[in-house]
Design a protein that fits this description.
Elements lengths: L3 H4 L23 H5 L11 E3 L2 E3 L13 H13 L11 E5 L7 H5 L7 E7 L4 E6 L2 H13 L3 E2 L2 E2 L1 E4 L7 H10 L4 E5 L7 H8 L5 E7 L4 E6 L2 H10 L10 E4 L9 H11 L14 H23 L8 E5 L7 H7 L5 E7 L4 E6 L2 H14 L2 E2 L2 E2 L1 E4 L8 H8 L5 E5 L7 H8 L5 E7 L4 E6 L2 H11 L9 E4 L36 H11 L1
Length: about 525
């Protein structure tokens, strides 16, 4: 008889709790297990010296600039074991093996960790250097790019560190006094202005990343490749007659946007209770970046410890030994922490594959489930890694950024629209996990087993005559909710709204604290 693991390419590795985060920054005395490996944390990075491209064997381990105050002796122990060659942290991330035809806009679309000070593209060397305003943002991007196995145009990107440098004084002053960024805001624009015209006028101050026109306002945003260039534009453009009556100032750097998912991840990592994730949005950017960077590093350690280097960036978690009476709805009721890309349940094999949008969330769910146990119908599930998911498809990533999920919302419906009718109408677009009607709010939700089918359903159902008067949009994936206190009988009963307690840290209990408690016990 062929085992499920053999048939479905499962990398199932039972772990003792003390083995779970071996090599993570939270495991005292073992950071070298994961972070001294250049394939994981810090590959050799080229640096620029006097305009020449020269390689160097010295690079900066991640631990050297972790916020020691935030994690006390635990992180200090990891930092103490770092390379003694470390002398200074860097705010510049090196990217190698970049396709020569890659544009700055394409490259920076992968950066969501903090304000960028400048970008230097070297297509002839197939590399680029991204300098952030602060080290925390750089460390976040560095660790996240490694975890996600950053790829551009089908090529895997090498991630390392650039030469340490300081932010130019004029840039620091402009940031402090005027909230300067590389994004130039243009207001009160003429109706007939074109993107080409804006590019021509602002391109004189430096290379341009993106131009966005919002004609109905009418306003525009121009991201340049450096804050220095933006400062020149803001200072000099209003002096020109053509722009004298226009508003010219700074907008927010698109690379510094903190998404709701990032807020939730940082909040959970820091131990902020569910429901208060919004407080993170107003928190110090360094604190958020440090939390997310350390979370990515820990996720990389979890993924590679359990599945080897090839498992880095995997988004699929394997669930085994599932009770025969379990439904896919009950499985989704205990999965918490991040949006699902797709879920595949194979009842006759008693196994399930849960693929998250974010590999960080997948590693965190894997870790928590191993430490605390995942129970459905009083049976503890086996937790492992499924076959590597690969990177999130670009089309899905863009859709998720725009608000897509596997949940479809239908508004303004009356009582004649039953769950059975909705299930029948929507089932032509793919497998459905749950249909939930809320009569008191005249709405319903149809949860598919993957995001792609939800996208197809919204596009298709809007074309049907009987649905044209309804509000059709994406709803919230309940699996993306913050983890709830453990309930050993979670999943035993079906809930129409999916409100079943999952197995995860209790309110106010951080990812770090769970790991620390495991280490103390073991």
């Amino acid at each position: 008889m062929v085992s499920p693991a053999a048939q479905y390419d499962i990398q199932y590795t039972p772990l003792l709790p003390s083995q779970l985060l071996l090599g993570s920054p939270f495991q005292p005395g073992t950071p070298s297990a994961a972070f001294s490996n250049p394939q994981i944390a810090f590959p050799t990075s080229p640096t620029m010296s006097a305009g020449a491209f020269t390689p160097t064997d010295q690079y900066i381990p991640y631990q050297s600039y972790m916020d020691l105050a935030s994690f006390g002796d635990l992180t200090a122990a990891a930092a103490a074991a770092a390379s003694p060659q470390v002398v200074q942290a860097s705010r510049t991330v090196y990217l190698g093996n970049v396709p020569s035809e890659t544009t700055a806009e394409e490259l920076l679309s992968h950066v969501h960790s903090g304000p960028v000070e400048s970008v230097r593209m070297l297509p002839e060397k197939n590399c680029a250097f991204i300098s952030f305003l602060d080290i925390a943002s750089a460390s976040h991007f560095h660790s996240d790019a490694i975890l996600r196995k950053l790829s551009i145009r089908g090529q895997d990107i090498k991630v390392g560190w650039g030469k340490p440098s300081t932010v130019p004084m004029n840039v620091l002053m402009a940031v402090h006094q005027s909230n300067a960024s590389r994004n130039v805001y243009l207001g009160n624009l003429p109706e007939d202005i074109t993107e080409e015209e804006i590019r021509e006028d602002l391109g004189r101050f430096g290379s341009i990343d993106t131009v966005k026109l919002v004609r109905e306002k009418p306003i525009g945003f121009v991201h340049l490749l450096s804050i220095s260039s933006a400062i020149k534009a803001v200072q000099q453009l209003p002096q020109e007659p053509k722009w004298a009556n226009r508003k010219v100032f700074y907008g927010k750097d698109r690379c510094a946007y903190v998404s709701k998912t990032q807020q939730q991840n940082a909040a959970q990592f820091l131990g902020i209770s569910p429901g208060y994730e919004h407080l993170v949005a107003g928190a110090d950017r360094d604190m958020i970046s440090n939390a997310l960077a350390q979370q990515s590093a820990a996720a990389a350690a979890v993924a590679t410890t359990a599945g080897g280097m090839a498992n880095l960036g995997n988004r699929t978690v394997y669930l085994g030994s599932i009770h025969p009476e379990t439904t896919i709805e009950e499985i989704c009721n205990v999965v918490r922490g991040g949006l699902l890309h797709q879920i595949r349940y194979i009842p006759d094999k008693h196994i399930c594959f849960v693929t998250f949008v974010d590999p960080t969330v997948a590693a965190q769910f894997f870790a928590m489930s191993n430490v605390q146990g995942l129970m459905i119908h009083n049976r503890r599930l086996k937790i492992g890694w499924g076959k590597h998911s690969g990177p999130l498809p670009t089309a899905i990533a863009l859709a998720v950024t725009a608000g897509a999920s596997r949940n479809v919302y239908i508004g303004n419906i009356d009582e004649s629209w039953t769950e059975e009718r909705l299930r029948q109408d929507f089932s032509e677009y793919g497998e459905i996990e749950l249909v939930n009607t809320l009569r008191e709010k005249s709405c319903a939700f149809v949860n598919f087993t993957n995001i792609a089918n939800a996208i197809k359903a919204i596009e298709g159902i809007k074309q049907k005559e009987e649905y044209r008067n309804f509000k059709i949009n994406f709803g919230k994936d309940r699996c993306g909710n913050a983890p709830r206190p453990m309930n050993m009988n979670a999943g035993h009963h079906s809930h129409h709204n999916g409100a079943s307690n999952g197995n995860a840290p209790v309110a106010g209990e951080s990812y770090k604290e769970v790991v620390v408690s495991v280490m103390i016990c073991c």
